[in-house]
Design a protein that fits this description.
mainly alpha, 125 residues, 0% strand, 2 domains
């Protein structure tokens, strides 16, 4: 095994360890961490068994195996970008809904305070 395989295996192990540490400190959600851990495991597998990339590229008709790696990377980045955009859209809707509820509650509080003040100003009612 050459030093490159060892190097990328160690990077994959550190990556997985970093993700586990982030989950442990509640800085990263468990559901999202599974996706990143799978990426780390894939990195380790491709570093230990590079023939997988060669066989897969031949199976898909790709002549230069690193091109397949770049294709997978681009698909990964597009998928992550899509998921983040989806979450941003959902959170934007939730923020809008919460802001509207907050405005209604503030209006109700101000109305009750005004009624209370008017009762204090006119105790005969």
């Amino acid at each position: 095994m050459s030093w490159q395989y060892l190097y990328f295996s160690v990077i994959g192990i550190f990556f997985i360890g970093y993700v586990f540490n982030m989950v442990k400190r509640n800085e990263f959600a468990e559901g999202k961490s599974i996706f990143w851990i799978a990426g780390g495991v894939t990195m380790i597998c491709l570093a230990v068994f590079p023939i997988i990339l060669v066989k897969l590229s031949l199976l898909l008709g790709i002549v230069y195996p690193p091109s397949l790696l770049f294709l997978f990377s681009i698909v990964f980045v597009v998928f992550v970008s899509f998921r983040q955009d989806q979450e941003i859209s959902l959170l934007s809707e939730r923020i809008k809904e919460l802001a509207q509820r907050n405005a209604l509650l503030e209006h109700a509080i101000n109305t009750l305070r005004a009624e209370e003040r008017s009762k204090q100003d006119n105790p005969s009612e």
